Amino acid sequence: MINHYLPILRECEPFLIAHHDVRPQLNLAPGGMPIPPDNVLHPQHMANGRFLELLARLDGLTFGPFGMHMPSWVFYDCAVMPGAVFGLAMRAERVPEWARESLGVPADYLGLVPMAQFIAIPVLSGFASGATVPTTWLMYTLETINEISPGIAPHGLIEFTLWMGLQVFPIQELQGTVQWRSPKLATLAHLGPLELLTAWTPAHSLPRTLTFKMHLRDLHLQSVLLAPRAHPDAPPPNALIDVDDEGALRQLQRDIEAGHRIQVVGQPTSVGCHVRVPIFRAAPTAA
Amino acid sequence: MVLPFPIKGDHLLRELVPYVVATPANLPLLELQPFGLPTPSAHVIDPLRLESAVFLDLLHKLDGLTFGPEGMPMPKWVFYDCSELPGAIYGLARPAATVWPKVRSLFQIPADYAGLVPVSMYVAIPMPQPGMWFGHNLSSLAPVFRRLDLVPDLDLAGLGSLTKGLALKCFRVQQFWGATQWQSKALYIHAKFGPLALQTAYTPAHSEHETLTYGFRCTDGALRASMGDPGVQIARPPVDAWIDGRDVVRLKELQAQMERGEAWCIPQAPRPQADGMLVPIARWTTACS
Lengths: 287, 289
What we know:
- The complex is a heterodimer.
- By secondary structure, chain A is an alpha+beta fold.
- Chain A has helices at about 5-10, 50-65, 70-80, 95-105, 155-170, 185-190, 220-225, 245-255, and strands at about 15, 40, 85-90, 110-120, 135-145, 175-180, 195-200, 210-215, 240, 260-265, 270, 275-280.
- In chain A, strands 1, 2, 3, 4, 5, 6, 7, 8, 9, 10, 11 and 12 form a twelve-stranded mixed sheet that branches.
- In chain A, α5 links the parallel β5 and β6.
- In chain A, α6 crosses α7 (about 220-225).
- The model of chain A has no long low-confidence stretch (mean pLDDT about 90).
- Chain B has two domains: about 1-175, no CATH class; about 195-289, no CATH class.
- Helix content of chain B is about 25%, strand content about 25%.
- Chain B has nine helices and 13 strands.
- In chain B, strands 1, 2, 3, 4, 5, 6, 7, 8, 9, 10, 11, 12 and 13 form a 13-stranded mixed sheet that branches.
- At the A-B interface, α2, α3, β5 and α8 of A face α2, α3 and α9 of B.
């Protein structure tokens, strides 16, 4: 199934922004495809400033409309220093003029223009049992230019970026947050069943955010590219949650806090204004 | 509550109580009695639970009160995604029942709220190497108390240093890294931990390019010194030069020197000037480590 995505690599090149102390823990050939050494960038070197500005621009375009644009100081403190950034980029000369303008690419710039990025940072619990390499990582960002302008980069970029990005980091348990109405929930649901840590999250800017975790296996990675209708690891749903029903989300949160194990087990479906997500609700385990 | 060594802000531990924000998965990896100072289980806040919402909102307000004027308040999603989920928050608080009336009004505390009101917090994020953390946020109401004359009888001087020292012990940090601006008064606090290794002097990846990245080893001695224990002496190399953080050309020059492999540190606290401050730098030597 990878062949369906290989055309992306005719237009885009993988890149990695990682501190030299972090690089030894990362896989620089995700999916067996080496990241060109010239595309492995140090976040602290002045020469990479322009590329980092373009990355910030991409983030502003994709997350700005959600009110969740990442200020550069957050990118530095919370993303690129504790973790790393993997992505796919096009050479500036391949980017159409109209797209260069919207992406804020300077006229004299000849380097890489980021089209997609995947950021992960370690989670403290990943060091449990004395691990020397963290096994739990938080997917901090997954975004592509296709979310706001599908004509610039190849189709399928978000799935391919996620597939490669997940292999860059030594992830056994993946955690993350996503808004119930975000189209990214469908992409993440391809990975397999998402176990909910929260369903209604007042600690987040957007309370209608869910927090999930999942244990990654090869099966999950492959299914991102295959996009099966039903993931082989997912139990059949026994409920549908209306993502715009605040009361239902709050009840789901209360159930989680009461010890119920709740998983998102499939793609959201929509009919008219109604978006429903299939979930599997297991009874609380005995203490 | 007292620590087993003298500190500058001893009286603060009679007025305030410790708290920790951490997920159930992260909590077992924390030291909940840093230097023997216990964190009551009722003061452990789980960010995944609905009941924590008011306290987490108060933390967000604390951040806004601290950083709002400097233009770097933390969006709420950053608190969640970058602090509460991957790392932890440690701080000192006052129970709502005994909080000072002006502070109650400042925070707009709900009348029926009976939990803690945070007065300081320290946030850090684990890095991929065990024991290595990146500092993210130090908030303290001390400057706000002074500016607004909230509780004239209470001196909160030393609150920031005390909070950061206890937090780093709570997080079991062995090697610390952080970022701050050359003109930030926080450098006075950071320098208390000892000479600060410099990793960047000019940082285009940061909103403020005139940002430095600094680090130090988190020994008990360094933490005790930061809290004002007069019994700890820290060796500091002599100053080679003084940097004006507004001199961008000089900062870029220093950054270029470091990118070529030169090692520098900030050996001691800045020197105040009428219109800002000068920051000392020195060649990295064994006396720095």
